[in-house]
Amino acid sequence: MTATKLDILFVDDDDELRAGLANYFCQLGHRVAQADNAESALEQLQSQAFSVAIFDLVMPGKSGIDLLGELRANHAETEVVLLTGEGTIEKAVAAMRLGAYDFLSKPIHMKQLETIIHKAAEAGRIRRENRQLRALLKHSAPKHRMIGKSPAMQEVFRLVERSAPSEKPILIQGESGTGKELVARALHEASTRVDKPLVVINCAALPEQLLESELFGHEKGAFTGAVTAKAGLFEVADGGTLFIDEIGELALALQPKLLRVLEDGSLRRVGSLKERRVDVRIIAASNRDMASEVAAKRFREDLYYRINIMTIPIPPLRERGEDVLLLANHCIGSGWELDPDCREAIRQYAWPGNVRQLINAIERAKILADDEMLLKENLPPEVLNRAAATLPSTDGDLASLTRARVVQALQQQQGNKLRSAKTLGVSRRSLYRLLEKYQIEPHEISG
Ligand SMILES: Nc1ncnc2c1ncn2[C@@H]1O[C@H](COP(=O)(O)OP(=O)(O)OP(=O)(O)O)[C@@H](O)[C@H]1O
Ligand SMILES: [Mg+2]
Q1: 178 lines ligand 1 (CB under 6 A)
Q2: Which pTM does this prediction carry?
Q3: Which of 192, 215, 249, 299 is deepest in the core (most CB within 10 A)?
Q4: Does ligand 1 lie within 6 Å of residue 182's CB atom?
Q5: Is the CB of 147 within 6 Å of ligand 1?
């Protein structure tokens, strides 16, 4: 650690003390500068980048606090360590709030000051690095990586931007394949926890007991097979974010444990009495309607209120208008094209498996395509003609078959157009077209 050569500025009106400090650090091999007042310090800061500035809180003329203010505003690369005399601790604490790295009370212990200076320099380095990383991330901010121009998706992006900086839990709701995990990642990346881990757990993927020890950890011998102690994912995510996917699948028996972490950050590993504390931001996702899970007593109401402080609903793909074509075009990649009929088929289909289904369909179509043009025939059969798979068995021509199928779907859905369109695998718009084309009357549906 002492190997790092630092540029250090000492600012103190006490000539003897300042010279002593400067001398000491100079002998350690650091590059040292001095100033006996704030003005001269600022001048030097203009002309040279210091990694750490050490200054006295009380000086004649401009005070250490004023200097700190200017320094924080204009010389962000310099970390500040304050020296305080007796009775000025309170001021020093205030200075910390203004962005000083640390303070040290006089009389100064050289070793202690040395340690603080190195720590401050390291903190500055990390801060710069993070700033660079964040600047890089800005270019790939969620709205750029998540495709969507529809008003419905713009609203999602707005909610992500709004809620990311908060520490509060977030519940993401949406059908399968709508991009819940992508939104969770975007939230983490736009949060202050971006340098800390984002840990993902899927409640549907593990049986209850395993899920418990994954989440909360366990002690050695807590259960058969627990040959060593293990930290749970809450501990792994400490300081960062835990994404709990499919939270609707969380067993009732585990829900109180999750509630406790949400309430005060405390948890116990399985088989342990020791209380541990973690600082974890929780993002949960579900493709079930959590309110009805609560009504059905499958999910605790108190836990629901805790995680439902802020909800981000992700619209299904079929409600995003032209986004489906944007996504399809993005997904085929450069050099490829969609034939007009293929575009139309993509636009018409209801995509019950949402973006994931679309991506898979395109990937598959690319394998089947002869050249770099996707044709309608290259799309999976369910996309082309989902209704045909479940056609009622009459032996009429295609038109009357289709007509019969549409009437049947509407009857089954009590005339609900949106749901009927969904079961038919067509958009609502094309359902209306079908109603018109086949002149289907309301009395046929209720009959
Ligand atoms: N708006 C979008 N732009 C680009 N890609 C997207 C978008 N939404 C989703 N995707 C992609 O679609 C796939 C499915 O997304 P994701 O896994 O986030 O969905 P999910 O809602 O978590 O699904 P499930 O409920 O099945 O877990 C991923 O490959 C993801 O990258
Ligand atoms: Mg998911």
Answers
A1: yes
A2: 0.59
A3: 215
A4: yes
A5: yes
